[in-house]
Every structure is written in C-alpha cells, then in structure tokens.
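@channel sequence for tomorrow's demo:
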Amino acid sequence: MNKFLSKFFKLEEKGTTVRVELIAGLTTFMAMAYILMVNPGMFADPFGDGTNVLGVSFGAIYIATALSAVIGTVLIGLLSNLPLAQASGMGLNAFFVYTVCVGLGFTYANALVFCFIDGLLFIALTVTGLRRLIFEAVPAAVKAAIPAGIGLFIAFIGLQNSKLVIPSTSTGVTMNTFNLLGDATWGSVMPLLITVFAVIAIAVMSKKGVRGAVLWGVLGAGVLYYALGFTVPGFYENFWAGKTLNPFTAFGDFGTQAVGKVFTEGFNFDVYLAGEGHSVGGLVIAFITTALAFCMVDMFDTMGTLYGACRGGDLLIKNDNGELEVPNMDKAMLADAVATATGAICGTSTVTTYVESSAGVGAGGRTGLASMVTAAMFAIALFLSPVAALIPACAYAAALIYVGILMIGCVKDIDWTDPAIALPSFLTIVMMPFTYNISYGIAFGLISHIIIKACLGKVKEIKIGTWVVAVLFAAMFFLTH
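structure tokens (generated this afternoon):
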C-alpha cells in the first residue's frame, strides 16, 4: 500500500512520506473542524436566539457541511496533488445567511441557486482562462481590503451571536451588561464571560503553536459552559427537549431539508417578489449582482488562500516569467469550482479552499495524500452531529471572532498614506459590517475608485472590466433599494 501511495502521490519526488502526510492531514482537520459547528449554527440560528429564519435544521446543514468538505477535499487532493482542504467558506456563509437571505429576502433554496451558479461560472472562467481578466479588473486597493472587511463582518456576527453586542434603540448596538448588581444575572453574564475566555484561550494556544487551537477553544468553552450550568438555577430543566443522540436523525433532515433543494425549490422566487418594493426587474438586477458578488468573493478568497498556504510551505514554483505561482493552479481552481457547485446541491454555502490548510503544510504536508486523510476525518465526523449540536452559541461565536482577527491582517498591505488608495480600501472594509452586506463593500470600493480616478484625470487607467462590474453594482443600488 505504501508503495502505491508513494507512486500515485509522488511522495519521494516531493520529499515526504506516508507518515508525514498522515500527520499533516490530521493537523489540517483539527485546524478547520470548527466549521462543523459554526456553519450549522449560523444557518439554523443566525442570531443566536433560537429563531430559525432559514427553515433548515442544524443536523441538515451539519451533514451538508461535512459531506461537501469530503467531496471538495478529495477533489483538490486528486486533481492538484496539493495538501489542501475545502469546506464551506467563512465569510461566504455569512454572505449567504445574513445578506442574501435575511437582508435581501431570498429563501434558503434561492440562495443555493446563487452558489450553484457561482460554481458553474467559476468552472467556465477557469476552463476558458477568463478568471484572470476578472481578477485583474478589480483594483488592487479593493482586493487587499476585501478579506479585512469580511473579517470584521464575521467578528461582528460572532459578537452578536454571543450577546456581547446587543441591539440598542438609541445607538443601534451597544455592549451587553455585566453588572450583577444591576439588571444582569449570573445566568446572562456567564455565557458572555465564556466567549471572552474562549477568544483569549484561542489566541494563547495559537501563540504557543497548539494545533487546532480554534477547535480546542470552542470545545473547551462548551465544556465550561455546561460545567458552570450547574451554578445557574433551572439550567438543566428540559435539557434534552428537542435533542437526540441518534446520528442518523441528521441524515434524515439532510434528505428532506437540504439536498437537492437548489433544483426543487431554488428557482421559485415568489417569496422575494412578495416583498415590499420588489419587482421582476429588480429581481433580475439583484440576481446578477448577487451571483457576481458570490463569484468575486469566492475567486479572491480561493486565489489568495492557495497562494498563502503554498507560500507558507515553500510549495510555490517559478513560471516562465520568473514569478512565483501555485503549482497546478488551474486544477486547484477547478476543484474549488466543482466543489462549490456540489456543495450547493448538498445544501450548503460556497465551498472553498481553507487557509487553515497551511497548518497541515506547516506540519510537513506536500501532496494530495494529506488531503485524503483530512477528507477521511470529515467522513468520520459525519456521524458526530449530536455532539456538535451541543456546542452553545457562546462557544462557537468565539471562533467567528477569532477568524475575524486572522482576516484583518491584510490591512498592513494597504498604502494608507495615499488617499486614492485609502478611501476605496476603507469603504470596502467598513461598509461590509456596517451594512451587513459583503457585496455593498465591494460596490462602494469599486465605485469610489472610479470616481477618484475620474476626478484625477486618470480615466484611461480604469479597465473596461472595472467599469462593467461597477455599473452592475450601481444598478443594484438604484433598482433594488
């Protein structure tokens, strides 16, 4: 078996062994397994208050998340022979839930159509080579700012899910109270403290190089939550109501609520059209711009992640121009695109390559064999949905907040001393969390970039593709809002 694996994945050529790839695959899984709790929690309980806005259960999305991770990770491992893994992307899942469904008024099945189209477009762009043209049409200032904006958006969602940040009639939002001598009770303060503790614990473990720091932080917070539950009167009353230890219940929900919904219900837009101020013309514009936003975010996220993960493991190669690039880049992008379309069929948001793959690369992973190990772990996790369902919002919210920390680091690459760069970058970043919409951030960044260039007499520097995308976003503002 070892000889077969060594030959198939070219282990000797890559300077690695089966044992090293096994460890790398396990490391990657530990680093990104938190998505199995965060993604279903976001879909089934978007606001952390028990309100099921999308009408799909935790178990259904859990299976969809794990299954699409298996498929996507196997694809990228076999097609590109790179030690990378895929799952429902952070940021893209938030865009799916909070922007497309909650904000714009599309149904869960409608949103799956956008993901499916995203996958098909991504496949076409990759095969034809047009992907690079679109990527280059977006100004560097906006590209650099997109991850930071998404990071703040995700962190803001985590702060709200944990109830650290709550609605306010006077200021919009405010911090929750910790005052036990005032209106607060130990039962309301305890989850807040756990979230704070979990974020700090994740940071400390990450600093010390603990593998799977985010996962351990979430699990530890969950254990602490239930341990401290004994100090809260009535905490365990009716504890098992609505819960089950049968892992196959989730598979049943998956079959009835998620898989195939993109085809059976996705193209029915009656709910959207019934919304106030919605029209068929507005639907067309919203459809185009939303699908475009999905595709753009997915594209930038994937290309950036592929480059970052491979650079960290010294896996980059030089092309004919002497520039460093990801080996088998087109095959990796194709795997990502196919996984996105497959994920939509399963019933989850856009599947993309995970930056946490760099953990496995750092552990010595060099080939797709590491991906096969990660995929195998996700396959085993398919039967652990009852355990994942016990993780409270205050625990997985810590993962959302910490992922925001990881994504904000890209701001160091922005030249804040140049107003022509700083303004589009700033608007891209702040409009995402402030408007609860990732596409609005991209739109403001692009449109402000064009206006600034025009005012400076540099219209010729604006690419045709930039004009096209910006006009579509402008039409979205004027025709759908």
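heads up for whoever presents: The chain has a mean pLDDT of 87.
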